[in-house]
Structure formats: structure tokens, C-alpha cells
Amino acid sequence: xxxxxxxxxxxxxxxxxxxxxxxxxxxxxxxxxxxxxxxxxxxxxxxxxxxxxxxxxxxxxxxxxxxxxxxxxxxxxxxxxxxxxxxxxxxxxxxxxxxx
Length: 100
Hints:
Keywords: Membrane, Transmembrane, Transmembrane helix. By secondary structure, the protein is mostly helical. The protein is built from 2 helices and no strands. It is elongated and about 90 Å long. It has one domain.
């Protein structure tokens, strides 16, 4: 059983919502706060969320700083002393030559 559009229109009231035909004036301060304040607050909160952890760790965030040297993310904590090297030609540790 399908309802025709006229039957649906009879069941559902199709009045214009209150305030749509005669909208109230918008306060300019309210409009500036909503349209300018919310995006500015969002921008500032994202900037604080990005920069605050590095500032708390004491890192420098000034532009033009030289890149951090000898940074190996996820590498050994004590330096390269933990890495094993190929000591003899018969070693099974691999190496730059790629022979196993």
C-alpha cells in the first residue's frame, strides 16, 4: 500500500516554523562572536595542543633552528654501541654486501 503525496500532506502539517517568516534582528556583537570567536578559539586550542607538549619538554620551537642531529626514532636508547657489526667474512650478520 503506497500513500499518495496528497495523503502524506494531509497527515503531516506543513506550516512554516515560527520565526522563519519574520526573523528577528541579529545583534552584531553576537554575530561577530559566533562567526569570528569560535574559529579563533578553535585555532588557538589546536595551536596550544600542538606546541604545549614540546614546550613542556624544553624543546626549542623557534623557526630557522638547525635540524636535530643524530636522531634515530625507535632506535637503541644507549647509542650505536648496541648494534652488532660484521666481524669476519664468515659471519652470519649480513652487512652492506647483502650476502647471508
